[in-house]
Amino acid sequence: MTNAGRNGKSGNTPARPPSSPYLLQHLLPPSSRCLAFFNTPTILAYSHTTTRYPRNPRTIRHTRRAMAEATDQITTPSSSSDELQLTITHHGTPHIFTLPSTSTISDLSTAISNDLSIPSSHQKLLITPRVGLLRAPFKDPTLPLSTLTSKKILLMGSTAAEVSQITSASTTSHEQSLRRAAGGPIKPATPSRTHNLTRTLEEAQYTFHTLRPLPYLPDPSRSLALLSRLRSDPGIKATMRRHKFSVPLLTEMDPAAHTTHASRTLGLNRNRGEVIELRLRTDAGDGYRDYKTIRRTLCHELAHNVWGEHDGRFWELCRRIEREVERDDWTRGGRSVGEEVFYEPDVGGAQEGKKPEGTA
Q1: Fold classified for 81-160
Q2: Tens digits of per-residue pLDDT, 259-274?
Q3: Where do the domains of the chain lie?
Q4: pLDDT tens, 4-49?
């Protein structure tokens, strides 16, 4: 074979084998050509086993162009990285918000106001786990939403139309009272639609907005039914409206995590009513506690929405709530029977004294 044939200058196909450093210089990018000479055995093995390079120079140019385009597609950032999505649950309905990745909690509040017609002043955001309850004006209005993408966000608040409806109903009721006081023939009493509407709206606002049993304990559906019964209890509902208690989360307490040799915790109130936990199950875990015992515990924890310490003001309010719940529970009568148990409330994470539940 002539020198021209060995150099690949006669004919369309170079005579050099495809693994030669000469061909690698043409196939590899300029920044990698030096590697072909200093690390020739490695490059040769790679070219033989993993890649079949074309020998036609025109095909080589097309291959380089395709490799460059593929590299550009990999390194070019996707436009989706400039946005983030958050799912907000309001009245049991999830709403998905798509916002720029640089958005803050204030931007989310504005988006909620625009999309759901809930003014910022009426918004309460319960973010779990750990962040807690946020409301406008926010303590940190620049809180990045990128830190909340893995959180559960519950929105509580009334739309402007609902607030206007409540105000209008209240005004109408007041005007009717003034007309009755001014005199005139007394007509037979008829059910008030305005009163019923106002009561319905208040019950939707002053309630336990989310119920959550512990899914890892046996029969969570029964725990959920018990929590639902507490929320629907006529005495509890009347007290919630009267004192304007709005609790974002009512959940089941894990009895194993709150039992010691000296006492057992029956209820917890975190951050003045953001979360209330109730011990629903017996210590042995083979059943559920007496309903009225659990309800008395709930009355105790509702009093912690107002007063944190177990002082005279707290016990006065606690007794009042218990009397109201008993009086307004028109579905039941008789005396409540409880066990000898102990309160050990935790308000804001602080341990407090214990009190026999059977006493006020």
Answers
A1: Ubiquitin-like (UB roll) (3.10.20)
A2: 776 777 889 999 889 9
A3: 3-74, 81-160, 191-356
A4: 444 444 455 555 554 444 444 555 555 444 444 444 444 444 444 4
Distances (CA, A) of 217 to 214, 253, 285: 6, 10, 9
Mean pLDDT, to the nearest integer, of 338-345? 38
Q: Which residue has the tokens 């804001």?
A: 348
Residue 80 half-sphere exposure toward CB, CA atoms < 13 A: 1
Contact, 115 vs 95, CB < 8 A?
A: yes
Extended strands (E) in the chain: 83-90, 93-100, 124-128, 132-135, 152-156, 208-212, 247-252, 267-270, 275-278, 342-343, 346-347, 350-351, 355-356
Q: Is 220 exposed, middle or buried (0-12, 13-18, 19+ CB in 10 A)?
A: middle
| pLDDT, tens digit, 9 for 90 and up, residues 278-292 | 999 988 778 899 999
- Give the sign of the dihedral formed by CA 40, CA 45, CA 51, CA 57: positive
Residue type, 194: T
* Active-site residue set: 301
Judging by DSSP bridges, how do beta strands 83-90 and 152-156 pair with one another? parallel
Tokens of 258: 């709150």
- Could you identify the residue written with the tokens 């008030």? 192
pLDDT digits (tens, 9 = 90+) for 344-354: 334 433 333 34
Token pair belonging to 286: 């083979």
Output the CA angle 224-261-270, nearest 5 degrees: 45
